[in-house]
């Protein structure tokens, strides 16, 4: 077995950012990075936004001006973790007679046959696309290999069905339609983006997708493959089901966090299916209210408990980019027997590009909150999510780049009270809406 101070399991954005944030924070010990793919770490948003126009991988080191091979002590490519085991504390390790290096607290075995002992393990294992078991003929879009297969199926104009009207589904729909393909979207909820924005505002986003057929409140109950066509069975809310065949069918049903490693821990109660790994605001894994020392989770596999925003759900690029700063600081503080420093965390931020349209969401939209919309044009508006006493919890910005900086500043310290009378006034800058500095 081999010792490493920090073992980072997963080499997506959150994983490599953890490596670099540790170095930036002054960590001088060894860092091992396990990359489950053969390809160097790459960016995922371009897979849906630029599938046909950018076939090459957008490597994160190039895109973010990083040098991960220099920052990590060891990188193991095409290597996944198999088991995670807690190591009992060395009985002779005391404050007066510490071991020669940080005491290993976790042991990880891998598909490459290695056995790593680590003082800290960071789970950045990501997530995989959800696909019902019987849908073998359906494409997904989560990895470079997924993108390559889908691109190969779309070399000529095709009729494409996209099952799922979340961010990835509508980004892909707009992109493919712009490149000559005929698109049909099936969504089980009443509108596109209903889970993310609420039905009213998801319906408004749908107006940005002209010439795309959209079936909402419609469940796909069966998918079969017949020669070079794929047939779906659709069940609307009322009336009989129907069938339709397509050249290509893509499932955009969300993602399931990779939490398998926790099943090998006797301390960890089984997580509900599809649930992310629970962590506190510094990324420390927390099971049944108890922090597991030296075990951390970040990125698409984890949900963090934030004191201002509540549970920060996974799946957002900006969260994977920024959260490792707090995690690295917590690791450094732990090694120095100190409390993590108070590091400001930006408001949660989701961004999307739907064809020519740019969308930003700052904060956490609550569907039971009041919404007020400031309209600039038919394709440009800002929606504010707030309580009855004008506590602002989220801002949705559609095609209004001048408002993004203001929204970021407005929510920089968490939900804030605003002047509700000025929300619809297009002449009032967003940054001036706060009523309680």
UniProtKB/TrEMBL annotation:
<dbReference type="GO" id="GO:0005737">
    <property type="term" value="C:cytoplasm"/>
</dbReference>
<protein>
    <submittedName>
        <fullName>FAD-dependent pyridine nucleotide-disulphide oxidoreductase</fullName>
    </submittedName>
</protein>
<dbReference type="InterPro" id="IPR016156">
    <property type="entry name" value="FAD/NAD-linked_Rdtase_dimer_sf"/>
</dbReference>
<keyword id="KW-0274">FAD</keyword>
<feature type="domain" description="FAD/NAD(P)-binding">
    <location>
        <begin position="5"/>
        <end position="313"/>
    </location>
</feature>
<dbReference type="Pfam" id="PF14759">
    <property type="entry name" value="Reductase_C"/>
</dbReference>
<dbReference type="InterPro" id="IPR050446">
    <property type="entry name" value="FAD-oxidoreductase/Apoptosis"/>
</dbReference>
<dbReference type="Pfam" id="PF07992">
    <property type="entry name" value="Pyr_redox_2"/>
</dbReference>
<keyword id="KW-0285">Flavoprotein</keyword>
<dbReference type="GO" id="GO:0016651">
    <property type="term" value="F:oxidoreductase activity, acting on NAD(P)H"/>
</dbReference>
<dbReference type="InterPro" id="IPR036188">
    <property type="entry name" value="FAD/NAD-bd_sf"/>
</dbReference>
<feature type="domain" description="Reductase C-terminal">
    <location>
        <begin position="357"/>
        <end position="433"/>
    </location>
</feature>
<keyword id="KW-0560">Oxidoreductase</keyword>
<dbReference type="InterPro" id="IPR028202">
    <property type="entry name" value="Reductase_C"/>
</dbReference>
<dbReference type="InterPro" id="IPR023753">
    <property type="entry name" value="FAD/NAD-binding_dom"/>
</dbReference>
